[in-house]
Amino acid sequence: MAVGKGTPANCGNRLIPQILDDLASAEPDRIIYSWARSSDLSQGFRHVSARAFTKAVDKTAWLIQRELGVKSEIRAVGYIGPHDLRQVLLTFACIKANCAGLFLSPKNSTEGALAVLEAANCNIWVNPAGERPTQLVNDFLQQRPMHVMELPKLDELLPEDESELENVEPFPYTKRWEDAINDTFCILHTSGSTGLSKPISWTHGLIGTVDAVRMLPPHEGMEPWAKGWDDGDTLYSTFPLSHGAGILMDVVISPLFGLHCVLGPRDVIPNLELISSLADHIKIDIWSMIPSLTDELGEAPDILPKLSRSKFICASGGPVSNVLGSKVNEFVRVLNLTGTSEGLFIGNLWVDRQDWHWFAFHPWSGFEFKMVEPGLYEQWIHRNEHAEFFQGLFHTFQDVNSFNFKDLYVQHPTKPGLWASHGRSDDVVVLSNGYKISPLDTEALVTSHPAVDGCLMIGSGKPQAGLLIELKDPTIKRDGDDAEALFSSIWAVVERANSLSLHKDQLHRDFIAFSEAGKPFIRTDKRTIKRRATMALYDDYIKRFYQSRGEDDNDAEVAALGLLTIDTTSLDSTARAVRHILASIVPAVKDAPADANLFTLGFDSLLVFKATKAVAAVTDLGGIFLPRNFYAGPTVKAITATVVRLAAERRATTTNGTITSSSTEQQQQDPQEAKIRALMNRHKALLSSKLGPMDLFGGNMYEGINVFIPLCPGVSFEQAYRVLQRGLVRAMEIVPALAGKVIPCSEHEIGYKKGDVRISLPSLPSTALGTSPSDEPRQLRFRDLSSLVPSYAEQRASGFLTSAYPDELLTTCPSFPDLPTDVLNVQANFVEGGCVLAFNVHHHAFDGIGMLIALTVWAECCRFVQGDQSATSEWLHPESLNRDMLSILYELEGFAKPASEVDPRVWGFLPYADPALKRKQQEKEEDTDMTEAAAANGHVTEPNIKRARLSRHLPKPPRLPICEHWPPAPRTDGRTLAASTFVISAEKLERLQKSVELAEAADPESQSLSKESGSLSLGDVLQAFFWRAAVRARQGIQDGPHSLFNNMMLFQASDIGPFGGDIFEAPEAVRVQMDWLNKAFRSLFILPMRKDGGVELLLGTLPEELDAMKNDHEFMQFAEFLG
């Protein structure tokens, strides 16, 4: 067993009262405690020497013995008092007088306090002189007979004139360690967050494990947590003395480690202002912080620099925000400790500063982390040969050999010995569908909102989780614009929490509720919410909350609301319906005046939701009539007026550039005027548009996909093709660009620049010219492949592999066409049982999302021509087809500037040479060479440091030649890439996402999207995972930067929608046309999500690249090669 430098003799076997007595003898004038004289810290501090302190302890011990007499058994002495030195004196005095201080939390319930007193057999109560007993004390003293004594004021126990203590006789404490190891040091109790509080006895043996930490040898370069708590350091703790961490810091660690302990003003709850003032007026080496204050410090840039003079902040007692704690860690190092009331700090180690949020534990601690679900581990401890000194829990539970803490952890993705807390297994919310949700991360993130004091996730046994939020100002009105803005800002945080959770969208906007003003959440001393007690307090509220959100309302009146006939153009009809709806919920509304306040009639926030839902359903205003409309005018009259207004606005909506209105309004409108407006809108949509920079970005090429669609039984190829033709004709009316051509601009155009391109659109059919639309669009071709390729069923069975047959069978579309060329090029390939649509669009006209939107419109139009009158594509806003929209927004937002003023590095992501930029590029490379030369001489700049860090994960980026030609030239060695497909199952996908997200949430050095926007989607995770694997496989092989990466997983093939009727079923797969891409690009695609929830990864590979990927353990533990 190692004994470090400065480790005291008998370390781990020392009794603190004897340590203090020895210190008073050896260094009587040494200052060991100080406290602020007033809340104005400029008034100074009272300092207490070792001699004066031990004299005061002895004085208090004699007082206790005179009051209680001498007995052989240790008696519990209960106490609740102010935050001053009397509790510290009482602790040591009780030990000397063969008693044990029992320190109750003043926030405990009467029932909880009585349970602790009974279990501890505590029949003695001490009241601090000069203080009025709390209501809690008065309540339990009425129910439990106790011997009550008074503890004198602090100035009497510890007078400022130390000479007044000269006559105090030493109170002997001569016990040996062997005799006292199992004696009680003091008694605390559990927080009561999971039920009634229970007493916890700290023995001298348990306290000895805190002392012994300094004897732990380093592990893998990490020192035990006690390293750096040096003799003479000044410590300030923000924890109350009724909390275990407060006693540990102010009563235990200070004398064990020889620290100078500072107490703040007795009547001031620790806050940022006090922290700032302390930093100004007294030297603090070590700060012990409650989690909430550590988080607040992260948002206090004016205070943090003051703390940079300190050694570190010890954060304990609960989870600290990774984001906010990292800001603190930039100024003053954060030591993140975790422990329990029963075992204290077991085996915690110092981790690297950048890993502050992670925990590391010494192997002698005996911890085991058992996986309870993929990526999530439960902490256990097993007794071993180091139990006496390093496993404090077994001093508390002497009859057990293993113990489940029920604390959940996640493991660091690249550093196996590091762990991050992830709540407790008994905090989990289990929904009625079996989903288990760990609420801690979500609750912590939502609580970071400046207006939120706390929140609880609810919903165990329910089909949908909810969130109960306690505002810092619970009196805030729930109506008006301010309230709506507040809710929207909170909802934005909830959405961010949703995006980080394992079960996406686990919280819905309609399932957010606010606590009642008169019912604050029940909390422990460290302000942790007592989950079970608060749930019990809100039991009825939560029941009514879910009843108001119920999909199946059994109330006969409400069920009959759907039979109401409402004319929302009539104020009287609407008023009758609104009153009927509201009266079905609160009967008093039936006979109340129209302007009566509905809240005085019995409505509350839960009933508002129910009423809003009913009104919206009956008036067809779902998503339009909202609770805020109710709050804005809580009367029948006001709600009626709002419904009529919203219904009128809804009728007068714009769809695809055409103003639609109610039948009454249409009858009143001049028919000729309506016809003129419709024709004008259609002509505007067909104006030829010049392509902008974003349109030209993709290059002169087609992008193509193959869509696999099953045919309904008995349908002929000709029937199906006819539906596709008719649907495409209609789709071209809705999206005119599908009928257009990409053509070079004339050099005679105003503002012409070389390379300018536009989309030329066909004119409208004209009676005067004798033109009519073709019902056989030239862009669509038919081909029967039933005798050349496998049946649809066989292709489905093989997974619709891209490599099953060459793309040239499916399409004759050129990859890099000469202009002019059609925007759309489609071939309908029919096989036995299905159709494979080879769908190609020119990249100047449509990007990937645009291509999918166009395909979705076509599918909907096919349903329309087969009789589905609801398939109108009204969801497609006409301005979404406006190619000038990006330029308009660019100008509007103020980002536009002449191209000559744009930094040439902006175009650095383009892998193509530009003579106009060559000179500046050469200058940039010369600067880079100078920077690298400086680095070689020891002058490393920050960017190089970051590259060095990244190099641990990926190889150094190769220097690849810029592409000089478009399209890129084929490989010089004549080899062609082959399409390779891998699949990640739904189960492995969930495991991958969870491990990465949890690691991202806990890693302060992570530079991911989640740190900046709070959003780390499944697409983000998978894209990074796939890209890393491909980069590793292609290292040393890739010969140019001409790579394409496309993430198509945001939808399933079926999301395109069925092509409808009795002809087609919904599409089952989408595949990229890879053959031509493999000749020009090194492509990677994440394909649309499969029905089973899995995702396929498609890329072009050379044989050695494929072998490298198949032998990549990190990749293949999640992926499976399909072919």
UniProtKB/TrEMBL annotation:
Keyword list, A-Z: NADP, Phosphopantetheine, Phosphoprotein, Transferase
Pfam families: AMP-binding, AMP-binding_C_3, TRI-like_N
Domain of life (superkingdom): Eukaryota
Boundaries of every AMP-dependent synthetase/ligase domain copy: 24-357
Stretches assigned to the Trichothecene 3-O-acetyltransferase-like N-terminal domain: 715-862
Protein source organism: Fusarium oxysporum f. sp. cubense (strain race 4) (Panama disease fungus)
Protein name listed in UniProt: Uncharacterized protein
Listed GO MF terms: transferase activity
